[in-house]
Write a structure and sequence with these properties.
The complex is a heterodimer. By secondary structure, chain A is of the alpha+beta class. Helix content of chain A is about 30%, strand content about 15%. The longest helix of chain A has 15 residues. The two termini of chain B are about 45 Å apart. The chains are: A alpha+beta, B alpha+beta.
Chain lengths: ~170, ~775
């Protein structure tokens, strides 16, 4: 007998009602029940961060959260970043700085950085902080340099040019 | 991709989709008795349970046509014997992946555990169990590739002989997306359609066809977006064949997406190698002779199609590298152990051979009291010696070996790394700078690959370039990019020949029904071979365009130039016609053209070059915490020469990603087992992949020596970063320990190795680091 629960969750501003099994992860629910396949699964044990989404304003590993725990929550996924076909400033910076190759880890990095930058407001971001932030997730293709640069560039632009680029290299 | 609209295998949905999960061996070596599948099969929602017996014992057989090679067929599902922890013995197909895993738990296997073989030494011992009855001494291949009777006399007379045991740990390629496939039968096309996360769609087709006894026509393999490969996906996985077999039996779509534990234990590994190497030098530091015994722990089976020989053959053939070695002996072996099979992971033996040669250069300098960079200079193949025929029978085409080293040394000096190192040292810390010089044979065509004598010899590739009636261009190739930016690079190559904008060129790849038989993307081959074929095909289409334009403008085709979307007559500004208009006329008004100009703008061309060497010099600076032994990568420089750089952003991305994997192999990564062959690194908590915190910025300087063996002048460069980094980092670590008698010749060097060495304790041997199981 499956342990099923009816829940309501808002994803990228759109409300969904669905019935999920208690053991189903938020990641699987988003991907396979709701069709938000932009959220990727790289390890399913909370290390790689490819499945990072923004859950009620905080970055969260969607593989470590059950779908039922998102009952009543606001979830933001990579599909919610762009304005239609227009890339967000962060997405554009990833493109400009060659911050992706295979692209599998990219949604996780985007959501991680988006949550951090939103919370930081117009606080400047240092090289070291950017590297520390990016160190939360794994990328196997890029060597991280482009990702760090893209996050720094976005922070700089959002804080009206106040971010630092001086100091140790990215 | 940025919008979250990528299309990876696990994203693909189908009506009636079923999900596969595998029952895997919990033992490193065990005879398989009865398998009770009744409870699993009876679970609601389970549609099928298959074992080796119920599938008819299919296998993947990779063959090398050499007497020294012992074939080891890899069963799709192990039938009588399981040879490593994680080996699949049954597959369950169910309506939900959670349910499939539940059903796996219900399957009872009667195991009869056998003593395992878990190291190179144990495999060769007199009383070692045999993994395969036909493989004496657990040797799957044993090749004396080169020998020289004069070596004993050379070593006897040498001013210095240096050598040692050099070892590298077993590592995982670790693409962020694991392996995955979706197989479904299509009645209408009489085809099994497979979406596979692979670098080699045609070889997956061949593998499935051979294993299941089907004509290749009846299988179509499509690689959708692929989340990294690094070699792991350039071979055929038995799980892919099992899923195909299940979909055929059930006539339902079946999907499997590997989880990370499977990926770290049951997918292919690589790079577990040990070298007993020595070199003779004269008093000026010139190398006189080189002798190497090379053992590669290649796990339980030969992989399809490359075989277990890919590592030992590469190592024994290419060890001399960028140096002029007059006398050479090398023996390479592939050793069977009760571990997952080895596949060609990024670099394939070259990270190891470069590490060996660069350590030998350092040791020679130390023994002779010479500057280590000067010793390298005295041995490098000089610019005026290309093409250089090496002792290994390889002809090295033009490179910039000495120039790259000089430029690296100068850049390091200009950036004041030495001053920074000295400042760390005078503050009581430890810091070191290390170098690595190397070249990398890329884009092996069949002229080169045939020397390996593989039953399936890869090399060539074919491109089809077609212009549609609106003047847009479709390029299909058998190469199969997965993050290397081939869409951009190929578009640039073709657009440049046709005089259109790169945005008007669309690359279609990764589909066996779309492309002619091709060999996929690995071995730094795609831009040279696939790109070369595309360029040649584009030239044919350009010639077609010029003839049509010449006919319409009443000019000689030789006077037509294609640029900026227009066919123009040289020297006549008024005579021009848009390329889109030409395409429209060819397709829609064929009657206006002479017979030989009618019907289509397209060409299919195959390219099969011998291969070309790119080269580089890497420099690394590490800082070591004298208390904990922690090693931090502090600075990194790459001076690289991949010939003509078609897209600098793509090239730099490949270099940085490669360096990160190579540096991590030197400092972090190790697939470990206990003495019973149980994996100790089955999660990303235990298998340490590098994060941004472990990496530093990588500065890149380009040299450009165009290749004469490449249509575009470009050389392959997808692996160089990974090849050079281990040696550069290891030399930097040894430089940081220069005032002690500690020298490391193995990777990874872990903090505990350094701390123990600095305490003067007995060092763990290189092998125990490499295998943790002897």
């Amino acid at each position: 007998m499956k342990d099923m629960h009816a829940i309501r969750v808002t994803v990228n501003g759109r409300s969904h009602e669905l019935v999920v099994e208690a053991r189903r992860t938020l990641a699987d629910m988003l991907r396979h029940d709701l069709g938000y396949t932009g959220t990727h699964l790289g390890c399913e044990h909370g290390i790689c961060g490819a499945c990072t989404v923004i859950l009620d304003g905080q970055p969260a590993r969607a593989c470590l959260v059950f779908g039922v725990q998102a009952d009543g929550a606001q979830v933001r996924t990579v599909e919610g970043l762009a304005d239609g076909e227009r890339l967000s400033d962060l997405q554009q910076a990833f493109s400009d700085h060659h911050a992706l190759q295979c692209g599998f880890c990219t949604p996780g990095f985007l959501m991680l950085a988006e949550a951090y930058l939103a919370e930081a407001g117009d606080q400047p971001l240092t090289q070291e902080q950017a590297r520390e932030l990016v160190a939360a997730n794994l990328c196997r293709c890029t060597g991280y340099q482009g990702i760090v640069e893209a996050v720094l560039a976005t922070a700089r632009a959002r804080s009206g040019g106040n971010g630092t680029t001086e100091g140790s290299p990215a | 991709m940025l919008l979250g609209r990528g299309r990876f295998v696990a994203d693909l949905a189908r009506p009636g989709l079923l999900h596969a999960a595998f029952v895997r061996s919990p033992h490193a070596h065990a005879r398989i008795g009865a398998i009770d599948t009744a409870a699993a099969a009876g679970l609601g929602g389970v549609h099928g349970v298959f074992t080796a017996a119920s599938l008819g014992h299919p296998n993947l057989l990779a063959l090398l046509e050499r007497d020294e090679f012992v074939p080891t067929p890899m069963p799709i599902l192990a039938g009588e014997v399981a040879r490593f922890v994680g080996e699949p013995v049954a597959v369950v197909v169910a309506e939900d992946p959670y349910l499939a895993e539940d059903a796996v738990e219900l399957i009872e296997v009667d195991w009869d555990p056998q003593p395992p073989v878990t190291s190179i030494d144990a495999a060769g011992s007199r009383d070692a169990p045999r993994l395969h009855e036909q493989a004496a001494g657990n040797r799957m291949v044993d090749l004396l590739m080169f020998d020289d009777d004069s070596l004993p006399a050379i070593f006897a007379a040498a001013a210095a002989t240096v050598g040692g045991t050099f070892a590298s740990a077993r590592v995982a390629a670790l693409p962020l997306e694991g392996r995955a496939c979706l197989a479904e039968w299509d009645d209408r096309d009489d085809q099994l359609v497979m979406h596979v996360s692979t670098q080699v769609p045609h070889q997956v087709r061949s593998g499935v066809a051979q294993a299941l006894g089907m004509p290749e026509r009846t299988i179509r393999v499509i690689a959708p977006d692929v989340g990294g490969g690094f070699g792991l996906k350039c071979v055929v996985g038995r799980e892919e064949v099992a899923v195909a077999a299940a979909a055929l039996r059930l006539r339902r779509p079946v999907r499997w997406a590997e989880d990370r534990q499977e990926n770290l234990t049951a997918a292919f590994h690589g790079h577990e190698q040990r070298y007993l190497a020595r070199a003779a030098f004269d008093s000026d530091g010139r190398i006189l002779g080189l002798d190497a015994e090379i053992d590669c722990d290649t796990g339980a089976y030969s992989v399809f199609p490359f075989t277990c020989a890919v590592e030992p053959l590469m190592a024994a053939t290419e060890l001399p590298g960028v140096y002029k070695v007059p006398a050479y002996r090398a023996r390479g072996r592939a050793i069977a152990t009760n571990k997952a099979p080895a596949a060609p992971y990024r670099g394939v033996s070259r990270p190891q051979i470069v590490l060996v040669m660069e350590r030998l250069m350092e040791k020679a300098a130390e023994a002779l009291g010479l500057d280590p960079l000067e010793v390298r200079r005295r041995n490098l193949i000089n610019a005026d010696e290309f093409p250089y025929l090496g002792v290994n029978g390889i002809t090295y085409d033009e490179g910039s070996y000495a120039e790259a080293l000089d430029l690296a040394e100068r850049t390091v000096r200009d950036k004041a790394w030495d001053a920074e190192r000295d400042a760390v040292r005078s503050a009581g810390g430890r810091a070191g700078i290390g170098y690595a010089c190397f070249s990398e044979r890329t884009a092996y065509g069949t002229p080169t690959m045939s020397q390996r004598r593989m039953r399936m010899t890869p090399g060539y590739d074919t491109a089809l370039v077609r212009m549609d009636p609106t003047g847009e261009v479709i390029v299909t190739t058998g190469t199969c990019g997965h993050g290397q930016g081939h869409e951009t690079t190929f578009a640039q190559i073709v657009a440049d020949r046709l005089g259109v904008h790169p945005d008007q060129v669309k690359l279609r790849q990764g589909d066996t029904d779309l492309a002619s038989y091709g060999w996929g993307t690995w071995g730094s081959r795609s831009v040279v071979i696939g790109g070369g074929a595309a360029r040649r095909a584009a030239d044919v289409v350009a010639s077609q365009l010029r003839q049509v334009a010449g006919s319409l403008l009443e000019a000689s085709p030789a006077d037509v130039e294609l640029a900026e979307g227009t066919a123009r007559i040289r020297g006549d500004a008024s005579a021009a016609i848009g390329i889109g208009e030409l395409a429209r006329i060819v397709h829609f008004q064929a009657h206006r053209l002479a017979d030989d100009l009618r019907y289509g703008l397209e060409a299919r061309v195959t390219y099969d070059p011998p291969g070309t060497f790119s080269n580089a010099c890497h420099a690394a600076m590490v800082v070591i915490d004298p208390g904990t032994g922690a090693i931090r990568l502090h600075r990194y420089l790459v001076v690289e020469d991949c010939g003509v750089v078609i897209n600098p952003m793509v090239v730099d991305g490949q270099v940085r990603g490669g360096v990160t994997q190579g540096a991590a192999a030197a400092l972090l990564e190790s697939v470990r087992f206990d003495t019973e062959g149980q994996p100790l690194s089955a999660t990303l908590m235990d298998y340490l992949a590098p994060t941004a915190a472990e990496m530093c910025a990588v500065d890149i300087v380009h040299l450009e020596t165009p290749s004469r063996f490449s249509e575009t002048g470009a050389k392959g460069m997808g692996e160089g970063g990974t090849i050079g980094a281990p040696a550069a980092v290891l030399n930097a670590i040894n430089d940081a320990l220069a005032d002690t008698d500690v020298r490391f010749d193995h990777i990874p060097v872990l903090p505990q190795d350094v701390a123990a060495a600095l305490r003067g304790s007995t060092l763990p041997s290189a092998l125990s680091r490499a295998g943790a199981s002897r």
